Structures are given as C-alpha cells and as structure tokens.
Amino acid sequence: MIASILLSIALFSQSPDTLCKAEVLADRHPVALSAAPLRVETRAGIERSGAKELSEVLRTLPGVSIKDYGGAGGIKTVSLRGFGSQHTQISYDGICISELQNGQVDISRFDLDNLEAVSVTIGQGNEIFRSARSFAGAGILELRSARPVFETGKSSRTGIGLRLGQWQSFQGNINHSHKLSERSSLSVNGSVLSSKGDYPYTVVNGQYSTTERRLGSEMSALRGEMSLYSDVGRTGTMTARLSGFFSERGLPGPVILYTQDPTEHLWDRDLRADVIWNASPSGRLRAEAKASVSWKYNRYTDSSPVYPVLEDERFSQMEYYLSGVAMWSFSERLRLSCTQDLAYGTLDTSFPDCVYPRRLTSLTAAALQYSAPGFTLTGSLLGTWIGESVSSGEPAPVRKHLSPSLSAVWNPAGMLYLRAGWRDSFRTPTFNDLYYSKIGNTALRPETASQFNVGASWTLTRGHFDFEIDLDIYHNDVKDKIIATPTMFIWRMRNLGQVSMTGADLGVRGRHCFDRGFVLNARASYSYQYAVDVTDPESKSWKNQIAYTPRNSGSALLSLETPWGRVSYTLVAVGERYSLDQNKASNRLAPYWDHGLSVGRDWTLRGFRLTVSAEALNLTGNNYEIIKCYPMPGRCFRLTVKIGGRE
User: Fold this and answer.
1) Helix or strand run (H / E) with residue 483
2) Global confidence as pTM
3) What is the CA radius of gyration of the chain?
C-alpha cells in the first residue's frame, strides 16, 4: 500500500520549480548488488526514524528479531531468521565481539549516538576482505563508528547531548575530536545513563484488570571510548581504541499475576583495547591486521529467601585475539582473500567446583570471488579448530569443522538483481554449556546449520523518485541443537534438537523529493517464518513452532522532512508466539502492535548546531510482552537535546 501511494505521488505530482538535494535510495549502499540479504541503516536514516537505541533500529529490519526483557535493565539480544542469538556475529569496526560464557551479546551496551551505520548480512555477502571470525555464524551485525572529519582550517569539534524520559530516565553524552596533525586525529566520547525503570503495566486476570508498577528494572551505566586515527605512509591507516562499559542493574524478574520478586542484581565491567592496521601497498594487494584484548567481569546476586544465604556468583573472562587478512586481485574480475584468526579465552568463576576452562581457537578462511558485468560469484571455506584445557576433570574434545559457502548475484536486465546462496555454519558450545556448575556437559557437539536463500531486488529511479523492493525466500536446517533437559535431580545440557525453518522476507523502500525542501521517505517490511521442531515424531512438540519465533511479523516507517523540521511514524507488528516449544494455549503470547511518533528540528546558531527531538513510544499504550511474564513499557515520552560544538 505504501508503495502504491509513493508511486502515485511520483506520477501525478507537478515538477518542482527548484531542485532539492538529490539523495539516492538507501544512500547508494549496494543493497541490491549483494549476493546475500543485506539490511543497511545509515546515520541519516537513523535520524529520520527517530530511533535512539540500537534495538529500535534493528527491530524494524526484516528477518531480525530482538529479545527484550523490558526496561532499562532488561537485557536485549538479536537473532536472525529463528536462529538463536549465539549464531549472530556482532562486529564493531571490523572486530567481532565475543562472549565465551553464554554466547549472548547484550546490544544495549552499544551507544547508537556513536554509530555512523548499522548493517545486517544474513549468509555470505559480497565482502571477502574481512576477518575469519566474520565468516562464522548465520549472519553478522556490523556496527560502524564515524572517523572525525574536519572542515578546512578547523582542528576540533565538540558535541554534547541530553536525553530525558519518564520513570526518572536520564542520559548524557559528550564527544570531542581533535586534529593532532595532518595525518592523525583523536576522538573521545562518553555517556552516562540512569533510570529507575518503574513503569506501569496492566495485569489482566479474567474480567478484572489492575495497573501495577514494574520493580527491579533500575539501571545505571557509564560508557567511554577513546580512539586514535592515523595515516601510516601513503597507503596505510591505523586505528587504536580503548573502550569501557560499566553498569549496575536490577534484573526484573517475571510477573506472575500480581506477584513480583525482583531479587536479582547484575554488575558488568567490560574493558577492551583494539588496534587495526590497514594498508594497500599496491593496486592489487590489500592487507589488514587486528589485535584485541578484552576483559569482562560480571557479578550476579540473588537475595531471594529461597536461598539460606545470599546467592553471589562472580565471573571473569579474558580473551586475546589476533587476525590477519590479505586480498590479491588477479584482475578486475578475480579476487582471492586469505585470513587467519587466533583467539585464546579464559573463564574464572567463584564456584567451588570451577574447572577454570581455557580455549584456543584457530579460524582459517579463504574466499574467491569472480565478478563480470552483471554477475558476481563468491565462494568461501572456513576451517575451525578448537582445543580446550581445564584444571581438573576431562575437557571437551578437540572440535574441527569445515564450513563452505557459495553465493551469486545476477543482473539479467535493467535494475533487476537475482541472488542465490548456500552456507554451512555451526555454533560452538559456550563455557556455560560445557562447564557450568553441575549442569555442563563436555560431550556436547556444536550446532550445525545449513542455510539456503534465493531472492530478488528491483530498483526504480525516476527524477526525484526512488523505489526499491526486495524479496527473499529461504530454508534453514539446524542439527544437534543444544538444549537443557531435566534429569532425576538437575538439568543437563544435551544435543537433542533438530529444527527446520522456512520463510520469506519482503522489504519495500520509497523516497520522493518535492520542491521547497519537502522529502517523503517510506519503508515497509514483512517476514514469514515457519520454524518448527522436527526432532522426534513422538514428542508433543513435533512440527510445533519453536519458542519466541512469530509466524508473521512486519514493520513500517514513514517520515517527512520539511524546512521546519521532520516528523516520523514507526510501526512494529508481531504475530502470536509461544514461550515453549509446545504450542498450547498456556504458552501462547498474544500478537502486538507498537506505534511510535517522533518530531525533531535542527538549528544553526553562531557556528553551533542545535538539535531537538521528541518521541512518543508505544503510542497506543499497548500492554504486550516479548518474553513471557516480562511486560514491556506502555506509552512513554522522550526528549533529546544535542548541541554540536564549534568546528
């Protein structure tokens, strides 16, 4: 429907007297040229949407699902096409973020204000100049920060931001960049977040309903990042970065009718140091080297009266990571890349029976790409070797795996592009899966997955009107799925599951530029997922939809830019889901619609840029849950003020 409206506007609107600034759909990112489904949001698109958190951007992309426990303290993870979040690689400026303990990266720790672009690739895309770790997993979420750019004759810029929201929510940001020389610059940014998070929600009990307050969702956090950018020689660049994240949060427990028992608390400490060197010594050779050291500390407490004393668990992770990649162009049509990653990780816990696991991982990948006019073929092979040691007992056996992939994109005519791809991937068991006190199982095998995708993209540009439509149909199989099953006394991790996933993703984008500075942007998406358990024909969950995977979901975004400001409307719709693999009424989660409205305006005052925006989230106050018994906030409002410093 949105596409029809936009097309009508393009056909019947009068030609403008003056030309507005041309901006090609999707900021000319080669979405249609990709051999794999690719979703991209640039800084301009993020600002148009009114999104202020990374999860708000990702939940509008087809094929992407967010698990959200609600409130500032609720952890948020991302998964692709029904795969668990452990199958999603998350890359920040080319370095993949790992989580050895449980495999789930909380995306709420990334500051959206600090990102220049967000992209999601499902399967094997066109980019082969990347680390070996990027080839692993079902897909990759790539976050790119902005390198400072200075106007001629200027050497520094500073910006501050303030965001206020309901339930005593506050966030402050500051960033400063300075030009050290013609070849180097320094960027420093930080943010502080505080929220009580005691939002109201409605409890429905038969014909009665009451309004309660969410407890245990308070959070305070501090983020900081310092980056040094330098040009090395005539063809090389180097980036050195030190970043930290510190938070203290309540973990909001489940709400069972009128009962809340928020007794859990979590402290996070995360420090990283990264160095990236990139060079092109010749027209045919590109090389890149990366090194990273990360330290993570978590403290979890539970003061529930169930425990005779305070439950106090502490975890400390260290990882040392090295990556090198080289790409050689034999000709304009044929390219070869080879990459090698090495990672050494450790986990220490406060458990008396901790075995102090140590893991050495070697990832080796080679990719070959052939490009001709209107056609690109890409093949890759990833070899994985993982060895572990423990202080006592038997470690997990050495794991080896070869993961091939093949993809192609073809331009048969005009702006029509056809793509197809197949990829084999697997998920390594986490340290918790293998060694967690009393429930770990060192005999676990990795989850293996096969992904098949066929799709098409078509774009149209007519004057000031741009239009794009993408359709992908896919089938995925997951074998040796790792699940927790009860035994006589305790739960154990086992390889018992097999899942079949078939679905389709549809995306539509449109943009029309009118005269007098008016620009209309529209985007809509729809996803269908038939993701069912095919482990055991005799089980009660046979051919049932897997947990927390909706059969139908979609989103829409409509924004209007005017000389006086911008306004945008966002809709996210999710169909029914089930909290467990048995699709019965007691496990059902109702469908929901989430509407959002954003207005904003920019001013330039004596060399300063002032931006003011206001957002209304969950505009209709819909009372819904993404995770069972974890109610999401109802209608809420935010106000953001940013002041860009003098250049």
Assistant:
1) strand 465-486
2) 0.90
3) 25
